[in-house]
Amino acid sequence: MGYFSANTADEAWGLAYEMLITNSDHGQESRLGLTREILHANFHINNPRERWILSRQPALNPAFAIAEVFWILSGDNNSSFINYWNPILPRFAGNGPTYHGAYGFRIRKHFSIDQLERAYLALKNNPDSRQVIIQIWDSKVDFPTTDGKPVDDDIPCNICCMPKIRDGKLEWLQIMRSNDLYRGTPHNFIQFTSIQEILAGWLSLDLGSYHQISDSLHIYERDVSSVSHSKGNYPKNNDNLSIPKTDFDLHLNFIITALNKLSSQSLTKKQFSEIINTTSLDTSYNNLLLVCAADSARRRRWENEMQQSISNCGNGLLREAFNRWMLRNLKK
Fold first, then answer.
1. Bridge partners of 173?
2. Strands 206-220 and 27-28
3. pLDDT tens digits, residue range 49-60?
4. How far apart are CA 144 and CA 139, in angstroms?
5. What is the predicted pLDDT for the residue at 90?
6. Any idea which residues carry the catalytic annotation?
7. DSSP at 78
8. DSSP 11-44
9. Does the model's pTM come out above 0.90?
10. SS3 70
11. In 3D, which of 216, 98, 120 has the Cα closest to residue 165?
């Protein structure tokens, strides 16, 4: 068991990496190959707003991470939307028109209630509640067959979320059955600390700490030689996603519409310009959208538009994350 406690997600990820990478004597087989594994790993991030992992090499794609957060928040399970932002995703999650275990659909639609909305109302009216659990795993559709075979390529790794209010802050516990430190953990931190911060805004609360229990934290042997940990001094994330719910709902609708346009083959430069020059969004949300716009322009080889988008982003950490992603692509 490992306990990885730090002020930032980047620091906590680095502690887990250092333990796993030296854990060469504890190989564990899986359906996708041999892994190095830590059972019952426990992460603690004191400042969840510092959610970005910049020390991981190769660098992650911040545009995909951002698009995925809003895809989850919209309750969507359509694969074409998220596949645009990560074209290799079908390799891991299947080739259907929808994703079986899409977190947002599970949270907001699958169980016939909007669990995020219900969590907001329950905690607003009873801040002392210990009964708010946002469920993702559904044993009726996720349990392996009796011979142990997966029922789908996309079985959710996240089991549930447990938000609680303590001392005027929104605390968060995330439970995961399986967690790939290389491909999964950085994105899981971004996904659920963002939701934590957004829900805190709805409730007019400060942001508490983030805890994550990864029952099987692992790295695949095939990836060990490809992944490294490069410590450095990175900019702080000064953006704040905590806004009132009525404002957030408008922001979500606007951003999802913009992301659909940015991922459309018929996007024109005029439409692109309208998106990156919007005045409809709070600065913190606009910064996120600008990173996605920059990556959309990169894919189209619109060099000027890409540079304009990322230059307009007022968040130095996000600019750094995008520049690292750019350098990774230049090396290919």
1. 162, 211
2. unpaired
3. 999 999 999 999
4. 9
5. 85
6. 157
7. B
8. HHHHHHHHHHHT-TT-EE--TT--EEEEEEEEEE
9. yes
10. helix
11. 120
State the Cα–Cα distance between residues 294 and 308, nearest whole angstrom: 8
Sequence-separated (6 or more) residues with CB below 8 Å from residue 173: 161, 162, 163, 164, 211, 212, 213
- Which region, left, alpha or beta, applies to residue 204 given φ > 0 means left and ψ of -120 to 50 means alpha? left
Which pLDDT band, with edges at 50, 70 and 90, does 332 fall under? low
Phi and psi torsions of 170, nearest 5°: -95, 110
Residue with tokens 């109302």: 121
∠ Cα 283 161 321 (to 5°): 40
Average pLDDT over residues 173-181: 97
- With contact defined as beta carbons under 8 Å apart, do 131 and 159 qualify? no
> Which tokens belong to 27?
């190989």
The torsion region of residue 34 among left (phi > 0), alpha (psi -120 to 50) and beta comes to: beta
Q: How far are the Cα atoms of 23, 131, 159 from residue 135, in angstroms, in the given order?
A: 32, 12, 6
Token code pair at residue 111 = 């169980």
